[in-house]
Amino acid sequence: MTFDDRPRILIAEDETLIRLDLRLLLEDNGFDVCAEARDGVEAIELAREHEPDVALLDLRMPNLDGIEAARRIYAERPLPIVMLTAYSDRAIVERAVAAGVFTYLSKPFTAANVVPAIAAAIVRHRELLAARREVGEATPPVIELELRSPASGNVWPIRIKRRRDGTLDVSAGGEP
């Protein structure tokens, strides 16, 4: 597996030995572990601070589980997220995917399954972002709406404009 640069990875795992094993496994396979968290809250903070390329999160962690941490991290800055856990029942997998998780791995893990899972998550995430950009370029950059009060009949104009970086500028008109 080759990358243009060494992908920077955030590891969030509450068990110290597993976290250290992951660090060694990832570094031996060309990844740069930029941060290590012991729980979901710390994972969110470190994701903000270090801006990793990938997050590898354990499902069961103290203070905040991996699924909620994934949801919050992905909402702030979309990046490929890989969930690592001993639990694989369907409801948990569905919650993880809905939170923005790209790949789901069961413990025990080996380099033979972790490395390809991270590589696939990186590629799929790039494809998703490219598709979103393509859709964004094909649609009008401005949406204008009117909110009408059913009680009074007043109308409030709302304008949503997509900036070149993909963020949205939302403005609302004044008094009706």
Mean pLDDT over all positions: 87
Order of strands in the sheet with most strands: 2-1-3-4-5
The total count of strands amounts to 8
H/E topology pattern: EHEHEHEHEHEEE
Ends apart, CA distance between termini? 59 Å
CATH superfamily of the largest domain: Response regulator
- Tally of contiguous helical segments: 5
> Uncertain runs with pLDDT below 50, 5 residues or more?
none
Keywords, separated by commas or semicolons:
alpha/beta, 176 residues, 8 strands, Rossmann fold, 41% helix, 2 domains
Describe what this molecule looks like in 3D.
The chain has 176 residues and is an alpha/beta fold. The protein folds into two domains: 8-136, Rossmann fold (3-Layer(aba) Sandwich); 142-172, no CATH class. It has five helices and eight strands, in the order βαβαβαβαβαβββ. The chain has helices at residues 16-28, 40-50, 66-76, 90-98, 111-138; strands spanning 8-12, 32-37, 54-58, 81-85, 103-106, 142-148, 155-162, 168-172. Strand 1 (8-12), helix 1 (16-28) and strand 2 (32-37) form a beta-alpha-beta unit. Helix 2 (40-50) runs parallel beside helix 3 (66-76). It is elongated, with a radius of gyration of 20 Å.
